[in-house]
Amino acid sequence: MINFNYESDFNLDKEEAVAAWISAVIVSENKKEGEISYIFCDDEYLHKINLEYLNHDNLTDIISFDYTVGNEINGDIFISVERVQDNANDFNVSFEVELKRVMAHGILHYCGYKDKGEVDERLMRSKEDEKLSMFHVEQ
Prior knowledge:
27% of the residues are buried. Strands 1-2-4-3 form a four-stranded mixed beta sheet, with helices on both faces. The chain is 50% helix and 21% strand. The longest helix is centred in the last third of the chain and has 17 residues, at 118-134. With 139 residues, it is an alpha/beta fold. This is Endoribonuclease YbeY. InterPro entries: MetalPrtase_cat_dom_sf_prd, YbeY. Zn(2+) binds at residues 105, 109, 115. Single strand-specific metallo-endoribonuclease involved in late-stage 70S ribosome quality control and in maturation of the 3' terminus of the 16S rRNA.
């Protein structure tokens, strides 16, 4: 089950379509859907989590807590919509595309993909692009 929670003024458009896409992303990686919660928040909220749980004193766009058991994907994915907007501007893409990329990124981590190091990062970007195309989002 895919859940969407809001700790900011942001609200996701087309929740059902996005949930169906996330489900398809999971199946495309030969995984089973468990309980996945997306929590949309602002920089301040995510920064506090980053400090408290990871001891990192920096802003980030996403923090994911992986509760995957075997082949069943479970976890909490916190996304700063402020960071996503800034990244969209920096990368010259729409907010929608960058948000979907970050949402897929969290799921891909749960599927075992890493993004530390050049080779892993290239594979992660390739997988993100593949998953974005499943939502028919123009990049």
